[in-house]
Amino acid sequence: RRTVARRHLVPQEEYPRAACLDGTPPAIYVRRSASRKWLLFLEGWGFCFSLEDCLNRAATSHGSTDGEPHHLDLRSHGPYFSTDSIEN
Asked: What is 23-75 written as a DSSP string?
């Protein structure tokens, strides 16, 4: 079964204040299925401890969507994204 999700960028025309640390638009990954249930996974690293920390983070995947893949295999983030009910 598929565990690959597709990237969707937040439209900056509609949400001009939504931005990553480097100004790129935020992204969410969505994997559609027949289920009516949702699973949201919010990756950590959302807080900067200092200006220097924010500036350094802006050049990484924790502060930018620049260079992020268009598709993401969710299994790389743990078994809770597995479609196998025994595994998750």
From this structure: SPPPEEEE---S-S-------S----SSHHHHHHHTTSTTT--TT--SEEEGG
Note the pLDDT of residue 6.
92
Angle at 62 between CA 83 and CA 4, to 5 degrees: 20
Structure tokens at 83: 């479609």
3-state SS, residue 87: coil
Is pTM beyond 0.85 here? no
Query: C-alpha distances in angstroms, 38 versus 33, 34, 41, 59?
Result: 10, 11, 10, 31
Q: Which residues of 63-80 are buried (b: 16+ CB within 10 A; e: fewer)?
A: bbbeeeeeebebeeeeee
26: left (phi over 0), alpha (psi -120 to 50) or beta: beta
Query: What digits encode the pLDDT tens for the residues 23-54?
Result: 999 999 998 888 888 878 777 667 889 999 99
